[in-house]
Automatic annotation (TrEMBL):
Statement: the UniProt record of this protein carries the keyword ATP-binding: yes
Pfam families xrefs: DEAD, Helicase_C
Entry protein name: ATP-dependent DNA helicase RecQ
Keyword Nucleotide-binding: yes
Keywords tagged on the record: ATP-binding, DNA-binding, Helicase, Hydrolase, Nucleotide-binding
GO molecular-function term, one example from the UniProt record: helicase activity
Domain Helicase ATP-binding: 24-191
Residue ranges of domain Helicase C-terminal in the record: 215-365
Database matches in InterPro entries: DEAD/DEAH_box_helicase_dom, DNA/RNA_helicase_DEAH_CS, DNA_helicase_ATP-dep_RecQ, Helicase_ATP-bd, Helicase_C-like, P-loop_NTPase
PANTHER family: ATP-DEPENDENT DNA HELICASE RECS-RELATED (PTHR13710:SF84), DNA HELICASE RECQ FAMILY MEMBER (PTHR13710)
């Protein structure tokens, strides 16, 4: 079958982007595939086109509700009606009806947690799937060990029965993450396509400050003087609120975004940003994945990210239109220690292992630890997963190793901040790649002229669109898109 004909018939394109055809050919031939393609390179086509070739359901395991809804919306815009998201937006009756008719859909989006539900598994085993897709597959390694251990169980479910090929998609992954993806998805000698992680149009800056107040003053002055749209990342929910409030007082259309907000509020804020009603978002790392906004001009990290991979994912949300964009990494004394504290704040330890054993000994449910305020729900999920995998002493060793990995990851970010050599080169090397060519205005260490990258606010052609973001989002949620 000539793939270009299918491409033009269903998607209106006459040629593939780099990597797409190679990946699709391997899938059509029945191979498991790991594909690392930069944001904006059309990863979704790698499973959508096979969906039309095989003409059997494609199961897409996706990490976030907002990402699922966005993907469903995009597919519906291609006039495909047989697409559904099986998630918590459905009430009990809708969920039951969707599962009952699941075999009638061409594209099925689902979260790892929903995938593990018994009724869902029973239905999927009875179906003949053409392809299983794990989108944002780096989450297996970055989230599975941290706060969503169900990611580590995906392979246990997908291995049941006579499974179809598995496609793991991501924009970035280190060699360790690639190994985790292959191992936990139980992939069979996968074909791996790796595109360069470098985004030449994203220029990397950094600034050092003596204290956090000085850093905040710089942010406020910089945002008021330069063009957006942009995202300011910080590690504290309270900081997202306080910084966005200060910007609002200065006349900047902005909003705070974090995991503590109501899911529908988060959807509205995200849609406002996409449609241009908001120029800036101040967010924790809960924001960004699946946000398809082409003209993000700036990414500012108010606090250092927990690891280099997260940093690369977050700055990759800028400049999808191919125009120049600026990624600013800010650092004040003590930021690295705060990052380590945040990384360990909601994580189980040896005391929790002993408590878990004690509850079992008393024939009580270990989950009672949550009700008694002895552990957070997130930390318990991680603990419970490992307590079902290993002997308690081995669990303690595992948690200790994971803690060390978190500390090491922060130190790696600190090395990027402190380096006197090319920051871009160091970033690309972190992912096991070689930088072939440096763009002009490469990074702070190579001499970066900010005025050549970001225009002054009065020169900006930023305009608020006339599209009703609220009406569009309501249509998405009600299924009328």
């Amino acid at each position: 079958m000539e793939l270009e004909k299918v491409l033009e018939q269903h998607f209106g394109y006459t040629s593939f982007r780099p990597g797409q055809k190679e990946v699709i050919e391997q899938i059509v031939n029945g191979k498991d595939v790991i594909a690392l393609l930069p944001t904006g390179m059309g990863k979704s086509l790698c499973y959508q086109l096979p969906g039309y070739i095989f003409n059997k359901p494609v199961l897409i395991i996706s990490p976030l509700l907002s990402l699922m809804q966005d993907q469903v919306d995009q597919i519906k815009q291609l006039k495909e009606k047989r697409v559904v998201a099986l998630n918590s937006f459905l009430n009990a009756s809708q969920k039951k009806g969707t599962i009952q008719h699941l075999h009638q859909y061409r594209f099925i989006f689902i979260s790892p947690e929903m995938l593990l539900q018994q009724q869902v598994q029973q239905k999927l085993i009875s179906m003949e799937l053409s392809l299983i897709v794990v989108d944002e597959a780096h989450c297996i390694s970055q989230w599975g060990f941290d706060f969503r251990p169900d990611y580590l169980r995906i392979g246990e479910v997908t291995a049941k029965g006579n499974r179809p090929p598995i496609l793991a998609l991501s924009a970035t992954a280190t060699n360790k993450v690639l190994g985790d993806i292959e191992f936990y998805l139980k992939m069979n000698n996968p074909y791996t396509f790796i595109h360069s992680v470098d985004r030449p149009n994203i220029h990397i800056g950094r600034k050092m400050f003596q204290n956090r107040e000085e850093k905040l003053d710089w942010i406020l002055e910089h945002v008021i003087e330069t063009e957006g749209p942009g995202i300011i990342y910080t590690q504290s929910r309270s900081k997202t609120e306080s910084i966005s409030e200060r910007l609002l007082q200065m006349g900047i259309s902005t909003a705070a975004y974090h995991g503590g907000k109501d899911p529908l509020d988060r959807q509205f804020i995200q849609q406002q940003f996409i449609d241009g009603s908001l120029e800036w978002i101040v967010a924790t790392n809960a924001f960004g994945m699946g946000v398809h906004k082409q003209n993000v001009r700036q990414i500012i990290h108010e606090s250092i990210p927990s690891n280099v991979a997260n940093y690369m994912q977050e700055i990759g949300r800028a400049g999808r239109d191919g125009r120049d964009a600026l990624a600013m990494l800010l650092f004040a004394d003590g930021d690295d220690e705060f990052a380590k504290f945040v990384g360990m704040d909601d994580f189980p330890n040896e005391v929790h292992v002993d408590l878990y054993i004690e509850y079992r000994r008393k024939d009580e449910l270990p989950s009672t630890m949550i009700q008694n305020g002895e552990i957070s729900e997130t930390a318990y999920r991680v603990l419970d997963y490992w307590m079902h995998q290993f002997h308690p002493n081995e669990v303690k060793q595992q948690l200790y190793a994971m803690k060390n990995d978190k500390m090491k990851a922060v130190e790696e970010v600190l090395q990027l901040i402190q380096t006197k050599s090319c920051m871009r080169e160091k970033l690309v090397h972190y992912f096991g790649q070689t930088l072939m060519e440096k763009p002009s205005n490469c990074c702070e260490c190579c001499g970066l002229e900010y005025k050549d990258i970001i225009r002054k606010r009065e020169q900006s052609d930023y305009k608020e669109p006339t599209v009703s973001w609220r009406r569009r989002l309501e249509n998405i949620l009600l299924g009328f898109s």
